[in-house]
Amino acid sequence: MTEELRRLGRLLLAPSVALLFVWMIVPLAMTIYFSTLHYDLLNPGAGGFVGLENYEYFLTDPAFLASLRNTLVLVGSVLAITIIVGTLVALLLDQAVVGRSIVRLMVIAPFFVMPTVSALVWKNLLMHPVSGLFAFIATSLGLVPIDWFTDLPLLAIILIVSWQWLPFAALILLTALQSLDEEQKEAAEMDGAPALSRFFYITLPHLARPITVVILIETIFLLTVFAEIFVTTGGGPGLATTNIAFLIYSQALIQFDVGTASAGGLVAVVIANIVAFFLVRIVGRNLDA
Amino acid sequence: MARQVSPTRTWATTVAAWIVGLLIFFPILWMVLASFKTELEAFSVPPSFLFFHWTTENYAAVQGRSDYVHHAVNSVIIAGGSTLIALLIAIPAAWSMAFAPTRRTRDILLWMLSTKMMPPVGVLVPIYLLYRNFGLLDSRAGLVLVLCLGNLPIVIWMLFTYFKEIPKDILEAARMDGATVGRELIYVLTPMAVPGIASTLLLNVILAWNEAFWTLNLSTSEAAPLTVFIASYSSPEGLFWARLSAASTLAIAPILVLGWFSQRQLVRGLTFGAVK
């Protein structure tokens, strides 16, 4: 490679690197700085350095523990639902299906619906305790309709978010399944291996990597679920559906407590970085292959 | 696909797959149906499935609210603008890393990926305050900027994975013939890269159109795209289901069509090439 080419390469790369660097460093540095201040937007005069007090306040606030718990329940449940159901859907679509491409389109559609639309359609048209479709189904079956957003608010959010992310898991796992060597499957079938053991000894090991990728990528997005909570419950009732992202938002833009919100923001960054560390390693390994 | 499958089994899997597909698609279908009902019928118990008085009055009502068009235009400008600017910045970078790689290219790529993993809420406070001080709150330029930077890593990564698949021999042949880098870029690479660039564009327009963290937090009315407009239906006094459904259908229809076209590229784009 010529020196000229190398120089050109650096020149062309520079704007992206510079922009991403600024985009990452400046706000992060500001967050760290704000997190050490007593900084109240409603009372701008009363500023000052307070050290780690904001962190202490944020981490010992009962709302933090509640929202951490909600975040973990939300992320864990959505992951479990989307991976298990997604694997089943992918296995089904990998079979001989007449009109598979149309079914594929229907399965993938929810992924393209904007979060505010899916949340409001589910909340009103489906989950409304009187006029929602679920209530109608429950009454028809002689059951008492569930008042989702009063009695099971977190489960309601989990269902909405799972619906949005199921297509992602199903599509990626289907893509992976289709790359599984057809001959290998056939050979196992000829050997008379029962379907279940074929699944556990051939298919599942093949899916291990794509499943890991789905888990990591979904986790990154699920840790910061926001719009679905914003338009349905507003974090309530009480703190029942407040996750870390929503807690930080409400501290910043509802209570105007910049210092504490910044400390919370850094806690969120740290949590996300733990996940990101593993994802980057997996993607990096693939880059070498 | 040469495997022989018995007709009975094909029947069973086909029926099962269609049921699953329809179930997953159902909320969207139900919303589209509700958009053609009157407000009274949309709310009625028991619900009517197909035998209701079909009407397009909700669409007229939504269009009639002059602000719907305003927000739709905002969505187009913000999603399109942020994607085009990101592409302009990313194409040279991806070209550089794919065709003039150095020892540090791998680390730079992974670092770029890691910037995408920073949770937006972690920098909500500084971005909000900066925007307030620079008068960028509720401005289209502000949203274009934040979405452009937010999606830049994905754009670079997608382009990189496409560029890397272009055979290097062709470039070397062109170089032997004495083509300059500029000519090589325009006459040799660009035609081969167009499909990759197109699918990158498509996927990122979709992501930007549906983005609902920054748009909800940084815009209220003037620059608000459709995500924010739809969110305004969440207030208790705004519970017009049929109208909500009509507005929602209009808001997702273009992106659903684009999305269906780009579904093959979706996997590679969203997994950063880790699953192909």
Task: Write out key terms for the chains shown.
heterodimer, A: 289 residues, mainly alpha, MetI-like fold, 2 domains, 13 helices, B: 276 residues, 73% helix, globular
| Class derived from helix and strand content of chain B | mainly alpha
As a whole number of angstroms, the C-alpha radius of gyration of chain B is: 23 Å
- The low-confidence parts of chain A are none
Radius of gyration of chain A: 24 Å
Report the portion of residues of chain B in β strands.
Answer: under 5%
CATH class of chain B: Mainly Alpha
Quick one: CATH superfamily of chain B? Answer: MetI-like
Q: What's the level 1 CATH class of the largest domain in chain A?
A: Mainly Alpha
Which descriptor suits the 3D outline of chain A? flat
Number of strands of chain B: 0
Find the CATH topology of the largest domain in chain A. Answer: MetI-like fold
Q: How many strands, which pairing sense, and closed or not: the largest β-sheet of chain A?
A: none
| Average pLDDT figure of chain A | 86
Q: Hey, roughly how much beta strand do the residues of chain A contain?
A: under 5%
Largest interface: A-B, 111 and 101 residues
CATH structural fold name of chain B: MetI-like fold
Separation, N- and C-terminal Cα atoms of chain B: 19 Å
- Please provide the count of β strands of chain A: 0
Describe this structure as you would to a colleague.
The complex is a heterodimer of chains A (289) and B (276). By secondary structure, chain A is an all-alpha fold. Chain A is built from 13 helices and no strands. Chain A folds into two domains: 66 residues, no CATH class; 183 residues, Orthogonal Bundle (MetI-like fold), CATH 1.10.3720. With 276 residues, chain B is an all-alpha fold. Chain B has one domain: MetI-like fold (Orthogonal Bundle), CATH 1.10.3720. Chain B is globular. In chain B, 48% of the residues are buried. The mean pLDDT of chain B is 85. At the A-B interface, helix 1, helix 3, helix 4, helix 5 and helix 6 of A face helix 1, helix 4, helix 5, helix 6 and helix 7 of B.
